[in-house]
Specification:
372 residues, alpha+beta, Aminopeptidase, eleven-stranded mixed sheet, 11 helices, 43% helix, globular
């Protein structure tokens, strides 16, 4: 029996990850990958035993909640105050660091983690999560359990089912969604302008079937130029092997933008047919080019166009809040779900304090950042 393309691609990702570790797909993630069954599907479980300083936030809770925030403070501070900003942010975040250590979530078994910024899930139901939690108790009796990218606006049943099994929902980031089936989306002036820009033939769209092996090194360089070199070394740093996987299996559908005979932009589209959503964990462009060329605008217009053609809802992920709001993006709080009910009481208490602290502070902080 021939497997559907997305199931085959996921299976090959998991097979290599189990054999070679997360570092096969990300150069800044050194974790083991195992698997667990849920609702007749097999999901990866990432296991980090030592949270190194430069481990990407997609595998390290400490990087996700502390290091990334600290790097952002330092990066946005004026040059002459960066050292003081680093010291100040360390003092502010130290209590959270102590809570993370106490509840042990650095060693969490992270379920459904494909080591991307955004994991997409089916809207699993209560019985699925009950069975999953029981299986995890047997497989990882000394580790907390974790599931990233939980948003009630996207998977309401899953969010409710996790809470029903005593998983704690801890605020993680502000994300944006858009439904291309809503006619009002296409009435935004920015979307109309972006569509005209995308139709401009001076920059050629390279669809997945026209991407060649010789393009992959340039695509990786464009991604790294934007997300690693410009933004943060804690972003997922996809390896050459990952780009080859995408080309060969369509794990991500790679699209390129070509200008004056060279690639100047890349986007990787991830679609989960069962979930009904589409997102982009991989985007990059030549940051040295004039802004007037609108490379980022073209890439995001291509993403929205693909969501409409595939009849999928669009998960815009996080960041660029004003840009995404101006293009129909609706803001939602996204959570990381954590379970410690099988661990010693002191770890459970530490998680309760950590969860309550972020549940109280994070929404206001994330909403304030969203308005910038």
């Amino acid at each position: 029996m021939t497997l559907p393309p997305h199931i085959r691609a996921d299976a090959l990702w998991l097979l290599a990850a189990k054999a070679r570790g997360g570092a096969h797909w990300l150069s800044n993630v050194d974790c083991r990958i195992e698997c667990v069954s849920i609702a007749d599907s097999t999901q990866p479980v990432s296991l980090l035993d030592a949270s190194h300083r430069h481990t990407s936030y997609v595998a390290s809770p400490r990087s996700a909640w502390l290091r990334y925030a600290q790097d952002e403070v330092i990066r946005h501070a004026p040059l002459h105050t960066q050292s003081l900003s680093g010291i100040g942010s360390t003092l502010v975040l130290s209590p959270l660091a102590a809570m993370i250590s106490a509840c042990g979530i650095d060693r969490a078994a992270i379920v459904g983690n494909h080591l991307m910024s955004t994991n997409l899930y089916p809207d699993w139901q209560a019985n699925d999560i009950k069975d999953l939690t029981g299986n995890l108790r047997e497989l990882y009796p000394d580790r907390p359990f974790m599931m990233r990218n939980i948003c009630p606006a996207i998977t309401p049943q899953l969010s409710s089912a996790l809470q029903g099994q005593a998983w704690k929902l801890i605020p993680a980031r502000m994300i944006y969604t858009c439904d291309p089936a809503d006619d009002s989306v296409w009435k935004h002036n920015h979307i109309k302008k972006d569509a005209r820009l995308l139709a401009d033939p001076s920059i050629q769209i390279i669809p997945p079937e026209q991407v060649r092996t010789s393009d992959l090194a340039r695509m990786r360089a464009l991604f790294r130029q934007l997300f690693i070199e410009k933004h943060s070394r804690l972003n997922p740093d996809f390896t050459p092997a990952f780009f080859e996987l995408c080309l060969e299996t369509g794990f991500l559908d790679l699209y390129g933008l070509r200008w004056q005979e060279r690639l100047v932009g890349v986007i990787g589209i991830y679609q989960h047919p069962e979930a009904g959503w589409l997102t982009t964990p991989l985007i990059g462009y030549d940051t040295s080019l004039p802004q007037e060329l609108g490379i980022y605008r073209r890439l995001m217009a291509l993403l929205l166009q693909q969501a409409r053609e595939r009849q999928a809802k669009l998960h815009y992920s996080s960041g660029a809040s004003q840009f995404k709001r101006a293009r129909g993006g609706q803001a939602h709080l996204e959570y990381t779900a954590v379970f410690t009910g099988h661990l010693p009481k002191y770890r459970q208490l530490a998680l309760q304090v950590f969860a309550k602290t972020l549940q109280k502070l994070a929404p206001a902080i994330l909403s304030k950042a969203d308005q910038r």
